[in-house]
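Forwarding the complex inputs:
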Amino acid sequence: MTEFTPFVRKDMLEPRDPPGNQQGPIAWARENLFSGPMNTVLTLLGILAVGWLALHIIPWLMHSVWNANSLSECRAIIAQTWGPDATGACWAMVRERWHQYVFGFYPMDLYWRPTLAFLLMLVAIAPVLYQSLPRKMMWFTALYPFICYWLLWGGTLWAPIVVLAGFGLFALAFRFAAPKLGVPVSAGLGLLAAAVWWLFVQTPLSTALNGIIPLSIRDVDSDQFGGFLLSIVIGITAISASLPMGILLALGRKSDMLLVKSLSVMFIEFIRGVPLITLLFTASLLLQYFLPPGSNFDIILRVIILVTLFAAAYIAEVIRGGLAALPRGQYEAADALGLDYWQAQRLIIMPQALKISIPGIVSSFIGLFKDTTLVAFVGLMDPLKGITAVVRADINWKGIYWEPYIFAGTIFFLICFGMSRYSMWLERKLKTDHR
Amino acid sequence: MAEQAIDLSKMTISDEVAVQISNMNKWYGQFHVLRDVNMTVHKGERIVICGPSGSGKSTLIRCINRLEEHQSGQIVVDGTELTNDLKNIDKVRSEVGMVFQHFNLFPHLTILENCTLAPIWVRKIPKREAEETAMHFLSKVKIPDQAHKYPGQLSGGQQQRVAIARSLCMRPRIMLFDEPTSALDPEMIKEVLDTMISLAEEGMTMLCVTHEMGFAQAVANRVIFMDKGQIVEQNSPREFFNNPQSERTKLFLSQILGH
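Prediction (whole assembly, two chains):
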């Protein structure tokens, strides 16, 4: 039989610091890099691999040439300065052609328009990204798409104003119908009113208004768009349109209403089951058949619509995951307090589900932004393939290989890395569960 | 609990009916959870519902604010019958407060926002006024100093008291408690029960599913024992605990009070 000594503690122990040899960089390295023979070997191999790569890349970057008029001139300068066997990067191409990477074939004397649109875009997305900014800025955000459209494509200012009036019509119909008919029915009614407005009133009215008060700037055709201008236009529009659409699809998929549910499921599964390139070909070739004859639907707009649908299907599934992670008690508490379905979704469910889904949503956004280069397949001038092909078709830059891809890749990386860092910052900021 | 003096002066039961349940039945698929339940709750009653797990006691009170749907019979809450009419359901829900076993506070909102959300959006009360009401009830449950923290920063007992305050901010006529102390550490049960007792002292109509028999003896005017989806026995706490009639009740009481 084991004996034990009865014991009563008289003084409680104070907390103490951990022992010193478990802290500091040396302890860290010993624990993480050299914790055993196997790990030590792997660490040394890793260092060797990195060193070997650096040894090959660094001289190439060090021998960069920024001032030259052609690839052959670049090579001559490198051979002259660092010897005949040296290799070096020829960034002179970027110096001469950067504007095409940025603007495509947009008329040079109008570069101020996309530049201004870009700067205004930063103002417009700021209040969306940073909650601490004044909420009144959201009014500008709401108007921005119309300003941006006018600045980029030009034409009469009346066109975006009349489109905007269509949204006003939607809001008006919704506001009067919502108390009597409920949210989904009145949203449908509003959409119908707006669609009729856009299809039948839009063009004659804006032409007529422009006849009375001409407010036109020079037209720029969609063919002239290219480079990062094109990527950002498609990317940002599709990102901002696909999030609300994805939310609605995720809610639709969880709906009790059979029709809404099965339509959502069919949409999501169909779009996810088809490659994006197929959808892009649909945009460029097939969509025209389904539209009323004579309507000339802009190719960039068509691509944007299909990229948006594509992203929305993925985002819907990501958000569905977030919804599934919420405990049922949250729905019950919202119900028990008397919140109706849309209030509960907006105030309780979505803020939490979206927070859980941030990494997945941002991954989808990053994927979407990089996928904008696929528009090269329908003849648009994306920065990676389209513009690079143009540059390399020039006799001066024929044979240049790494530099254009590294240049375009770097810009893509910066934008995508920015999105990723923002999402991590947002996750930390929204972390309120203190687990 | 017995040593605590309870103010009985406002605990009056009126003739007015708060909840009327008649011949109510509910099934989960083929499983008959609630069988011919009949119950009349008058204004000011404090009812404790107990029974073994799976006896349908939680389901019963969750039917009263339509978190669960009944398939036959009638439930009338404060003069409004619960049917598929969403307007009626929302009306009943805004009159009936509910406290859950797992608190179900909204983790993304502060304590104050948790308490003002429903008054602002459902009752359309101005924000300032809603905040004043919320602070009033948070003081009542003795945690006004935590108002700007998030639920995750509070202990279980504090969270449950916030949940009670959140319900009270809607000025409900009836309060439902679904095992409010079952998820709490023993040291925190008392603070929640004290809050519930002070609520009873103010004359609130309360239906509590709980196994806190001390609370039942001190506060309840009626104890209902359920088993297999039906009401087996109901009586005043004194009679219920000292002189149970049904064999099932005797067995149950010997199980929970036996050790």
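The longest helix of chain A spans residues 341-371.
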